[in-house]
Amino acid sequence: MFRPGHLIAAIALVAIALVAFAAPTQAGRKQPTGPIIVDTDIGVDDALAITWLLGQPNVEIVGFTTVVGNTSGDHATRNLLTLVAAAGEQYPVTVGAADPLELSRTRTGALIHGPDGLWFAQRPADIAGLPTDAPAALAAAAREHPGLTIVALGPLTNVARAIAAYPADMAGVRLVALGGAQRGGNRTPVAEFNIYADPDALAAVLASDMQVELVTLDAFSQVTVNPEQLIRRLGRRGDAVGALLAQSFGAYVRAQQMQGEAGRAAIPDAAAAVYALYPDLGGAQSALVKVVVDDGLARGQTVIAADLANRIPMIADDAELSALADQAFTPGSDMNAALGAILLREPDNAQVILDLDEGAVLRLFERDLLR
Ligand code: BDR
Ligand code: CA
Predict the structure, then answer these.
(1) Cα–Cα distance between 142 and 170 in angstroms, integer?
(2) Most exposed among 42, 43, 245, 354, judged by the fewest C-beta atoms under 10 Å?
(3) Which residues, in sequence order, are CB contacts of 36 under 8 Å at separation 6+?
């Protein structure tokens, strides 16, 4: 005979089984990380993130790919070339998607990042001769650089296309993606911007064999800076990159303030970049993640279950759970087996980062960006 306590016991038993099946966590990994490639829709916080990454002596950056998101694909590419040139560096750059996989392109990033994505800090750059097959570039990087991490700072369109075209190369590759939210959104009340921009791309990534680590809005919104202080300190670098970042970040903060966001400012992509190299600073948890791909009110919403009680209704619909409830109090019913079978139908598909150590992330960010 089923009693209410049995449900808890059943869930606990299945928890043990799931832990045994779960993918290994990233805990314990510190710098130096292996090689990385950065996929970016470079806007203002992407520029902060990339500048920080360029300053990491122990990290091999094997290239960049660009993607539509905060701004058009062409603007993103010109912004990347502008930043890399200002830093006096040279890297392979490959142009990527100009549109999301299925839905229409959002152009609302301009309200925060300006019409060119960098609030007019963009410089003329010749993008005509660049290679244009970002999925091929991602797959080639995975083939040629064992242990590669893809750091995805924008919508996941290029990554999804790489998975479709080169599944064997992408299988097992570590993907640190800035995107998704467990509680609330920033593009809509329920959706984070990067996933809103191309929800089908996240769906493809979640269905793939990549090792996905999602740095969510819940986590990156915990890392905030005093904007006036950061603008002053960027200016004090006294170099071209500092001037570019001070100009664009200043306008980005003013745009957010005009939209009612006073006080400290989040630096989403920079927080994700620091996490990618220092995963111990984020509490990565194995989770089942689903995403709303319909172009309606919930477009881009991520539903994230990192605990067992929430996984079950994400897998079994109400008809199935109601049928189980009907049988629960009859002699011989085996809830353990029934719940376990449900959970095993859909294994976890990502590690989610819901918390970041703000103090430690900011110390690394400021140490290596502001000098
Ligand atoms: C993400 O949205 C974009 O505006 C930022 O560049 C970042 O990648 C944060 O939700
Ligand atoms: Ca971005």
Answers:
(1) 7
(2) 354
(3) 53, 59, 60, 61, 62, 148, 149, 150, 151, 276
Which positions ≥6 away from 119 have C-beta within 8 Å?
Answer: 44, 113, 247, 248, 250, 251, 252, 255
Report domain extents, the chain: 29-305+347-370
- List 151's β-bridge partners, or say none: 38, 176
Give the residues surrounding ligand 1 with Cβ less than 6 Å away.
43, 45-46, 70, 109, 112, 153-154, 178, 186, 192-194, 268-269
- 120 Cα: distance to centroid of ligand 2 (angstroms): 17
Annotation: CATH topology of 29-305+347-370: Inosine-uridine Nucleoside N-ribohydrolase; Chain A (3.90.245)
**Ligand 1 center to 69 CA (angstroms):** 8
DSSP β-ladder status, 302-305 and 282-291: antiparallel
Ligand 2 centroid–CA 43 distance in Å is 6
Percent composition of the chain: helix, strand, coil (DSSP 3-state, to 5): 45, 15, 40
Q: Please state, in angstroms and rounded to a whole number, the distance separating the CA atoms of residues 144 and 278.
A: 23
What pLDDT shows up at residue 66?
A: 98
Counting ligands in written order, the one closest to the CA of 41 is: 2
Q: pTM here?
A: 0.92
Biggest CA–CA distance in the chain, Å, is 77
